[in-house]
Amino acid sequence: MSYFGDIYKGIKTLLTGMSVTGKYFLTSRKGAITQQYPDNRETLKMFERFRGEVVMPHDENNEHRCTGCQKCELACPNGSIEIIWDRQIDPESGKKKKMIDKHIYHLGMCTMCGLCIEACPTDAIVWAQNFENSVYDRSYLTKVLNQPGSKLKAGVEE
Amino acid sequence: MNISLNITKTITELLSGFMPESAANIGAMVTIALIYLAIFAVAGLYLVLLERKVAAWFQLRLGPNRVGPWGLLQTMADALKLVSKELTGTVKADKFLYNLAPYFVIVSSLMALSVFPFTQEFQAFDINIGLFFLIAISSIGVIGILLGGWASNNKFALIGAMRSGVQTISYELSVGLSLLTMVLLTGTLQLSEIIEVQKNGWLIVQGHIPAVIAFMIYMIAGTAETNRAPFDMVEAESELGAGFHTEYSGMKFAYFFLAEFINMFIIAAIATTVFFGGWLSPFGITESIPWLGVFWFIGKTFMLVFLMMWFRWTFPRLRVDQLLTLEWKYLLPLNLLNIVLMALIVWLGFTIQL
Ligand code: SF4
Ligand code: SF4
């Protein structure tokens, strides 16, 4: 009897599937997930996990959390990050210390894999939610993430 | 209101006013062919739009909505784009067959349209073997697909075409047998008479259980005949690129594409005619206004087209072996049983007459 049992089960599962999609069809007018992009350019907010580009947040004192450890540079599979660093005398403690000069990020090469962000031990870099990254000259895609004159936030290294 | 829709006769009479009879006959045929061509080219384009809209709604999207109000001109724009595109081809293609294939497909699907009675009068060609003609014509299209796949000298195209052959030959049986089940009830193959029989209740009501089973089998096999998902192994994008029409571009591709949608319309229209009373209105509510039949016919057909779209956007694609198992182990034996059942019901007079 499993022959007819199979037919019954087959029809039942097909109908279950159709009822699921049918419900979606009926509610689609209210819940369309489409973003009509150029129209809602002003109001469009990307969702939390969207990967726009890698940025380094700075606080109000122009301080970031990057220690210059280069872990992100090593983690990046295609060499999109270059860190130019230097040993300088820390004005507070008077010791010689590794500090970043420039955290260079090549957006044009980045595959948005997120490995650099996972590798960073101090959470100095994060994803930005911007989505309009097109420019007229590719040299604009090479960005320096730390702002000029910025310095390491105190206490990050402990 | 009295609109004469008996187009063949009207046009023949009109033309024979100033032409010898044989010329008038040919003239009438050409005129009707052109009218049908124009109507169904546009209808095909709008079916594409409908498909895209329905697909969007099933997936919680909006669908095309930029060109024209609610995107109504989108497929027109697409057609214009396809017309203006370059016709590319492979160097080693068999040029003659390669160019012939799209016409084969589109012509065979347009030919089938000629026998449908859209209303009592609006029927281009009422032959006494209408249903048989439809089944025959709708399977010619596969030759075009095989030719296209073979001649374009591309492995994917060839695999797609061969799958299409396997599929259409298998499912042709089920389409034929399920329609035959209904022919037992009507006792005629002529489409206009099949509708005449249904004045006592649509065949799906008259034939009750076996008719419903036949309808289900017909819809499954019909979807397979049109090579649409879940039976679209012919073009299975993820495996074969675009299957048999991988190497076609521009208008030749558009012919294949249009043929798919017209075929879908044809399958739905056959089901409308054979199971759901064609142009007859439910309970005869608009019997006094015969030209409303077009509305009912198109309405029913679009309900069935929608059903096929619903299938497409719900079910995953079958494997080749699953496809053949479904046909040869399930649909075909059930169909044969169903025919016997229907014969018994007709013999013993258990049909429901309203
Ligand atoms: S997201 Fe990936 S590719 Fe981009 S910079 Fe980070 S590690 Fe490199
Ligand atoms: S961004 Fe993070 S991982 Fe990269 S150098 Fe700075 S602290 Fe190290």
TrEMBL record, chain A:
PROSITE patterns, per the entry: 4FE4S_FER_1, 4FE4S_FER_2
Residue intervals of the 4Fe-4S ferredoxin-type domain: 57-86, 101-130
Top-rank taxon: Bacteria
UniProt-recorded name of the protein: NADH-quinone oxidoreductase subunit I
Keyword Electron transport: no
Cellular component terms per the entry's GO annotation: membrane
Keywords, comma-separated and alphabetical: 4Fe-4S, Cell membrane, Iron, Iron-sulfur, Membrane, Metal-binding, NAD, Quinone, Repeat, Translocase, Ubiquinone
One GO molecular-function entry: 4 iron, 4 sulfur cluster binding
Organism of origin: Lutibacter maritimus
InterPro entries listed in its UniProt record: 4Fe4S_Fe-S-bd (IPR017896), 4Fe4S_Fe_S_CS (IPR017900), NADH_quinone_OxRdtase_chainI (IPR010226)
UniProtKB/TrEMBL annotation, chain B:
Reactions performed catalytically: a quinone + NADH + 5 H(+)(in) = a quinol + NAD(+) + 4 H(+)(out)
Compartments it resides in: Cell membrane; Membrane
GO cellular component: plasma membrane
Superkingdom in the source lineage: Bacteria
Main localization (coarse): membrane
GO molecular function: NADH dehydrogenase activity; oxidoreductase activity, acting on NAD(P)H, quinone or similar compound as acceptor; quinone binding
Primary gene name: nuoH
Topology versus the membrane: Multi-pass membrane protein
EC number(s) on file: 7.1.1.-
Organism annotation: Lutibacter maritimus
Protein name in the entry: NADH-quinone oxidoreductase subunit H
Membrane-spanning residues: 26-49, 96-117, 129-150, 171-189, 201-221, 253-277, 289-310, 330-350
